[in-house]
Write a structure and sequence with these properties.
The complex is a heterodimer. Chain A is mainly alpha-helical. Helix content of chain A is 61%, strand content 5%. Among the domains of chain A are: 42 residues, no CATH class; 185 residues, no CATH class. Chain A starts with a helix and ends with a helix. In chain A, 60% of the residues are buried. Chain B is mainly α. Chain B folds into two domains: 36 residues; 146 residues, no CATH class. Classes of the chains: A mainly alpha, B mainly alpha. Chains A and B meet through helix 1, helix 2, helix 3, helix 5 and helix 6 of A and helix 1, strand 2, helix 3, strand 3 and helix 6 of B. Chain A: Its main location: membrane.
């Protein structure tokens, strides 16, 4: 790895860690209702909505509220996409989106996945982008955060029946955390060149005339195919370039901050209008990890022992640095097949990367976006070297708990922490406890469900897709890489990441439905069990620390936690990874 | 359930209004006032006509211009209303063929060039709209462009240096040359 890459990684981690305490403290204050302006803003809001802020909810009611709120979101996104042709702010006159694609996208954005089967700038009207998609960027992020806050309350409270009021929590996170930071980020992004307007697409006259093969279309607008099924083209020329426009900066800011990742444009954060400079790239990477890192401190603060939060953050940081090193290292290796042709190998693997980002800023971004369940991309993961592409896959397969999505990462990690103390308890033959709460059979059953739901969706989904013709039809690259494309799709969907090996043609009824199902259950199949654990923990008595209590703030526990995450991830996925990227790596280096 | 329905619907509508209407309009307002040129797309205007954007690359195949990154957008390269990468995996024969073709085109335009072939000049960018090439990729083309335009290589080289940006703030990203701006400057030389 180059010196530049080490400096970048070190700088990133240093700046991130500086933000943890102030932001974590702020979030804790906001969620505990200690934010001073709150009363003036909230009382009229609650009166209007018929919310009684001091009426707290048990876990089941909390879960119903969250499900209902997110179902409403999904329905709205679906409806706006279907009806966009008849609604305003559609300067390019895009037609309504097809039912299966709209279904997939509705679930995708409601579950914080932001998997995209469509190309943004050629499909969605400005109204759909801001009123359907950007709104879900806020609300799905808020959902993740309130669920982890509820779980933290489960640890912090004792002999309690309730874990908070979902409506109050959702309002506070959205209005005091997500919105203000987004405004600052969006304005900064515009200053660097991210566009923000409602103009029609801008036509410019290029310096040179471009000659190209234009696909022939029949009267119905369908491409004409010859007898072999190949698309018929005719030579064409143009000196016009049509620049996609739109309110990009406002969407970009929350897309990163809420670990959503759904690009306004098809090329996502590789598009110069979404991510114009290396500095915007750094700010985008920082916004992805900002809240997940700060929530660790919020956790420590709310359970009354900040060391607990730092321990979790330490485990996350150690895994992050290791994986980031791997991604940047493997992408620095040039493709040996191209080196043979005389291509300079010093620049590394440049297929699907932008010049302004190069290897280090692309490899680091790929690690951050896949660890954090964000899914934005500034380089095309499908063109990564085999092992460079294995890293993003593995990042997601660890369960999106290394920083992870906003809220989702920490609650996932706390589920693994319960698993870790359970394993430690088995070793020494004592009832496991975590943060003064006894971990019993009920918690362990629920923890098992929460941990196993996603691998089940990923592996069964992948198995079905490679067995049926509709699944195999989507593959773009031959050989083991084609299998990786499908594995990546289901890994990304079930873990609510949203990035892709984007060569896969996933905008088909088969993939839209299959991945839609994976996203929904990968999200709420974990949220509901987590809230059940929260309710069960809140009801328990707090037990005093004794001589046999495993301290959960030291290096021993950090090591134990890392091992648990790695063990579960590897046990689930090593066979699948061996069939995809590992084979591809061996073939590539044998082929030269 | 019924007690949840009213808060759910009304809170959803209100938060939608705040985050989906007020927020983007507020950001647009601020951007229009503070950074009007950037918010509108960093357009390059010549004689009152938009000829491109500082941030969006254009297709160049004429030997007298500097060439940019290969673009995988369809149906034409550098289609700025349908950004896309090639998504070709490292073992894909189509990738090897495409790179071979690009090397041949470079060699055909400049048979005497013995410099190593810069990777970014033969590998497609992620967006298909990359406005930049590496300084190495620019250096590779200096002799060809100078020859085609009957200019001194040193003059072309100086122009390239003028259009080369280093790492941002010294640490972020990579050094790069903006191809469209460089080519516009070349045309302005005569």
């Amino acid at each position: 790895m180059s010196t530049h890459a080490w400096i970048l990684l070190g700088l990133f981690l240093a700046v991130l860690l500086l933000t943890v305490k102030p932001l974590g403290t702020y979030i804790a204050n906001v969620m505990d209702g200690r934010f001073r302006l709150a009363g003036k803003i909230e009382s009229p809001l609650y009166r209007l909505c018929g919310i009684r802020p001091d009426e707290e909810m048990g876990w089941l009611k909390y879960a119903f509220a969250i499900l209902l709120f997110n179902a409403l979101g999904a329905l709205t996104v679906y409806a706006l996409q279907r009806l966009q042709a008849d609604l305003p702010f559609n300067p390019q006159a895009f037609p309504g989106v097809s039912p299966d694609s709209a279904f997939n996208t509705a679930i995708s954005f409601a579950t914080n996945t932001n998997w995209q089967g469509y190309g943004g700038e050629s499909t969605m009207s400005y109204l759909t982008q801001m009123l359907a998609l950007a709104v879900q960027n806020f609300l799905s992020a808020a959902t993740g955060i309130v669920v982890v806050i509820a779980l933290i309350r489960g640890f912090a409270r004792h002999t309690a029946k309730t874990i908070g009021n979902a409506w109050v929590d959702l309002s506070r996170v959205t209005l005091y955390v997500l919105l203000p930071i987004s405004i600052v980020c969006a304005v900064f992004l515009t200053s660097q060149g991210v566009i923000q307007n409602f103009d029609a697409y801008q036509e410019v006259t290029t310096l040179e005339v471009t000659s190209f093969d234009n696909p022939k279309v029949d009267e119905a607008g369908q491409p004409v195919k010859d007898d072999n099924g190949a698309v018929v083209t005719e030579p064409a020329q143009t000196q016009t370039q049509t620049l996609a426009m739109g309110p990009v900066a406002s969407q970009e800011a929350i897309k990163m901050l809420g670990t959503n990742g759904g690009g306004f444009m098809n090329a996502n954060s590789a598009h110069p209008y979404e991510n114009p400079t290396p500095l915007t790239n750094f700010i985008q990477m920082l916004s992805i990890f900002l809240i997940p890192a700060a929530l660790c401190f919020t956790f420590g603060r709310m359970v009354g022992d900040t060391r607990q939060g730092w321990a979790v953050l330490a485990a996350m940081s150690i895994m992050f640095v290791t994986l980031a090193y791997a991604a940047m290292h493997f992408e620095q290796q040039a493709n040996p097949l191209l080196t043979q042709l005389g291509v300079d190998s010093a620049a590394g693997s440049m297929e699907g990367k932008e010049t302004r980002f190069g290897i280090a800023d692309s490899g680091l971004f790929a690690t951050i976006t896949t660890l954090a369940s964000c899914g934005a991309v500034n380089a095309m993961h499908d063109s990564f070297t085999p092992l460079g592409g294995l890293v993003p896959l593995l990042d997601m397969q660890l369960g999106e708990v290394v920083f992870g999505g906003v809220g989702t990462g920490l609650y996932g990690m706390l589920v693994f922490a319960i698993m870790a103390v359970f394993i430690a308890g088995l070793m020494i033959g004592r009832t496991p406890e975590y943060l003064g709460k006894k971990i019993e059979a009920f918690e362990m059953k629920i923890v098992s469900i929460a941990i196993l739901v996603t691998p089940l969706l990923v592996l069964v989904g992948t198995a079905i897709a490679v067995m049926v013709a509709d699944g195999r039809a989507g593959i773009a690259n031959p050989g083991a890489h084609g299998f990786s494309e499908i594995l990546y799709a289901f890994t990304s969907a079930a873990n609510n990441n949203g990035s892709a090996f984007a060569g896969l043609s996933a905008n088909t009824p088969f993939f839209n439905v299959m991945l839609g199902i994976a996203m929904w259950f990968g999200r709420f199949g974990v949220i509901v069990p987590v809230l059940a654990i929260a309710g069960s923990l809140a009801a328990k008595k707090r037990i005093a620390v004794g001589a046999g209590t495993l301290p959960t703030h030291g290096p021993l526990f950090v090591t134990l936690l890392i091992c648990t995450v790695l063990l579960v991830g590897l046990l689930n996925y090593v066979p699948a990874l061996a069939l995809g990227p590992v084979i591809e790596h061996l073939v590539l280096w044998a082929a030269q | 359930m019924k007690t949840l329905l009213r808060p759910a619907v009304s809170l959803f509508v209100l938060l939608t209004a705040v985050t989906g209407i007020v927020y983007p309009l507020a950001v647009t307002g601020i951007a229009k006032v503070a950074f009007p040129e950037a918010a509108a797309g960093s357009l390059i205007v010549k004689d009152g006509k938009a000829v491109g954007s500082r941030l969006i690359g254009q297709n160049f195949t004429d030997p007298k211009y500097f060439w940019g990154r290969p673009s995988a957008t369809g149906p034409m390269p550098y289609n700025a209303s349908a950004s896309s990468g090639s998504n070709q995996g490292p073992l894909n024969p189509a990738l090897v063929d495409a790179v071979k073709g690009r090397i041949e085109a470079l060699k055909a335009a400049d048979p005497d060039n013995k410099l190593p072939i810069p990777a970014d000049l033969v590998n497609a960018s992620a967006s298909g709209l990359d406005p930049h090439i590496s300084p190495e990729a620019a250096a590779y083309q200096v002799a060809r462009v100078a020859g085609q335009r009957h200019l001194l290589a040193a003059d072309v080289k100086a122009l390239v240096s003028q259009h080369t940006e280093g790492r941002q703030l010294g640490v972020f990203g990579e050094a790069r040359v903006n191809v469209l701006q460089l080519n516009i400057a070349l045309d302005a030389l005569r």
